[in-house]
């Protein structure tokens, strides 16, 4: 099923084609593909080139690690994410390494790294669904995340499930048209709220 973006202006395919399904199949993601997704994250821009992101990665082939990551997701996310071939936690460093001062760009930079990862996944015919619904303190405990670092997001990665195999609520979400605000609602010129 196509989920084409209703574009106002042309963009590259990995941007136009990227979307976040709830329905994942259990089909494995190859090690080469997974490493390329993480390489795309590696080359994301970051404030002062700090690269404050860290990823905890688990594949279905390592049941113990996979279940540990799954346990750090909020219960509603566990219900659908448990089918994905790969689960990750996105972790940030709250301080700059070079001077120990607070890194106010860390969350932004993790977002850029995860966007790169998502674009690479889309280019390879894979899907990524990012989640803010995680338990950071449980992640800290389970994975011995040190002070100064914080688990911020979860990511499910894999192949899309056939919508016919999904429960009704998930099938409806995955088959719904993609929607975005028009540029006129978020691109301003002059004063805030004045369309460019």
Say which CATH homologous superfamily of the domain at 31-129 and 140-159 is assigned.
Answer: NADH Oxidase
Order of helices and strands: HHEHHEHEHEH
Number of helices: 7
SS strand fraction: 15-25%
Structural class determined from secondary elements: alpha+beta
The CATH architecture of the domain at 31-129 and 140-159 can be named as 3-Layer(aba) Sandwich
Question: Strand order across the biggest sheet?
Answer: 1-2-4-3
Shape: globular
- Stretches where pLDDT is under 50 for at least 5 consecutive residues are none
| Backbone CA Rg | 18 Å
Share of helical residues: 25-40%
* Total number of strands: 4
- The CATH top-level class label of the domain at 31-129 and 140-159: Alpha Beta
Mean model confidence by pLDDT: 96
Write down the CATH topology of the domain at 31-129 and 140-159.
NADH Oxidase
Q: Biggest sheet: strands, sense, closure?
A: 4 strands, antiparallel
> Distance between termini?
35 Å
Account of the protein in words:
There is one protein chain. With 196 residues, the chain is α+β, with helices and mostly antiparallel strands. The chain has a domain at 31-129 and 140-159: NADH Oxidase. 34% of the residues lie in helices and 15% in strands. It is built from 7 helices and 4 strands. Helix 2 packs antiparallel against helix 5 (106-123). The longest helix has 18 residues, at 106-123. The radius of gyration is 18 Å and the shape is globular. 29% of the residues are buried.
């Amino acid at each position: 099923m196509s989920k084409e973006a209703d574009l106002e202006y042309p963009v590259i395919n990995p941007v136009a084609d990227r979307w976040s399904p709830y329905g994942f199949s259990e089909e494995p993601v190859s090690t080469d593909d997974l490493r390329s997704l993480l390489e795309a994250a590696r080359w994301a821009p970051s404030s002062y080139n700090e690269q404050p992101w860290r990823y905890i990665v688990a594949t279905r082939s390592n049941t113990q690690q996979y279940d540990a990551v799954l346990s750090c997701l909020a219960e509603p996310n566990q219900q659908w994410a448990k089918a994905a071939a790969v689960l990750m936690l996105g972790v940030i460093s709250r301080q700059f390494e070079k001077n120990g001062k607070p890194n106010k760009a860390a969350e932004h930079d993790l977002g850029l790294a995860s966007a790169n990862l998502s674009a690479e996944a889309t280019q390879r015919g894979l899907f990524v669904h990012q989640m803010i619904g995680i338990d950071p303190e449980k992640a800290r405990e389970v994975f011995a995340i040190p002070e100064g670092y914080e688990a911020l997001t979860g990511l499910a990665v894999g192949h899309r499930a056939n919508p016919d195999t999904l429960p009704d609520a998930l099938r409806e979400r995955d088959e719904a048209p993609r929607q975005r605000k028009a540029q006129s609602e978020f691109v301003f010129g002059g004063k805030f709220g004045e369309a460019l």
